[in-house]
Amino acid sequence: MTRPDLNLLVTLDVLLAEGSVARAARRLRLSPSAMSRALARLREATGDPLLVRAGRGLVPSPRALELRERVGQLVHDAEAALRPADGLKIGQLDRAFTLRTSEGFVENFGAKLLARVSEEAPGVRLRFLPKLDKESAPLRDGTVDLETGVVGKATGPEVRAQTLFRDRLIGVVRTGHPLSEGEITPARYAAARHILVSRRGIDKGPIDDALVPFGLEREIATTVGGFSPALALARGSDLVASVPERHTGDLRVGMHSFALPLPIPRITLSLLWHPRMDGDPAHRWLRGCVQDACAGQLHGPPARGGSADV
Q: Is 200 in contact with 133 (CB distance < 8 Å)?
């Protein structure tokens, strides 16, 4: 029996990750015709079309979907086996890492993380991508090395997760706002005009659900897509922004923060990565850097007053 060409595993891994002969060819620095020939060899070896024409693009066959995870792990294990056995020299590391995070994470923890990385590994470069959804595909296909977020139903079952910290929603108003003095009751809080933060354009959130048992409803004056614009609007108006405390510490300097008088569950922010990176010493080092950057005291003023339940 003829032994298969194991070099085709690398080609298959890239083809399945890119879903395009042209993009895979660019990534492997091959000509499109050479990549097409490699795909033909892969089809012959597996007895499956692997990538099937659909309109102007290609879609993976059921067999390709089945192989994608296994092939990616095999390629990673092979690369790890061929690396030098001596210990990792962080100071000599020349590598780029991609992190998918929220804007709030970059604004409050990015500078500290970059300073740590620059000090220990000046050859390492970090690329921050916005987190527009909760899908785990970027971790799975290797386009993202690390991700921060809340573990949910969309998180792949194989994804590793480690808690970074727990956060809570707080209210924030400009200095001198009526809510900056006196007890914050559910009725006082609901009576104010509010800024809703929603990336998906929905018109209600957990705060609105928490107001229902009190028979209260807040007035949403405007909706924005992130915490930064919400706080910018609150700083220059009488509107109330309700944002995560730790994610917005630096952005709230000079403003009044208060605990919400509502029983809203805390948010657990986690560091996420694919298990194929477990044994990568450089990746493990970076995970430690992220964890250290998120440790320590809150930035900005702590929230005062309100309920101890949130």
A: no
- In angstroms, the CA 149 to CA 161 distance is 9
Q: Can you read off the two tokens belonging to residue 88?
A: 């990792």
User: Can you give the length of the chain in residues?
Assistant: 310
105-134, pLDDT tens digit by residue?
A: 898 899 999 999 999 999 999 999 988 777
| Integer Cα distance of 195 and 192 in angstroms | 10
Instruction: Find the distance separating the first CA and the last CA of the chain, reported in whole Å.
Output: 66
C-alpha to C-alpha distance for 230 and 30, rounded to whole angstroms: 47
Query: Cβ neighbours of residue 286 under 8 Å, at least 6 residues apart?
Result: 97, 117, 124, 145, 146
Structure tokens at 174: 């400009």
With beta carbons less than 8 A apart as the criterion, state whether 231 and 108 touch.
no
* 196/186 Cα distance (integer angstroms): 17
Nearest to 188 by CA among 169, 173, 204: 173
Cα(304)–Cα(111) distance, rounded to whole angstroms? 27
3-class SS string, 241-292: EEEECHHHCHHHCCCEEEECCCCCCCEEEEEEECHHHCCCHHHHHHHHHHHH
Q: Tens digit of pLDDT for each residue in 40-99?
A: 999 988 888 988 888 878 888 889 888 887 888 888 777 766 765 556 789 999 999 999
Q: What's the token pair of residue 113?
A: 């993380």
Q: Token pair of 237, please?
A: 């108006």
CA–CA distance, 50 with 132 (Å, rounded to integer): 29
Domains and CATH numbers, the chain: 7-81 (1.10.10.10), 90-310 (3.40.190.290)
Give dist(CA 187, CA 217) in Å, integer.
9
DSSP three-state, residue 6: coil
Strand partners, 110: none
DSSP 304: B
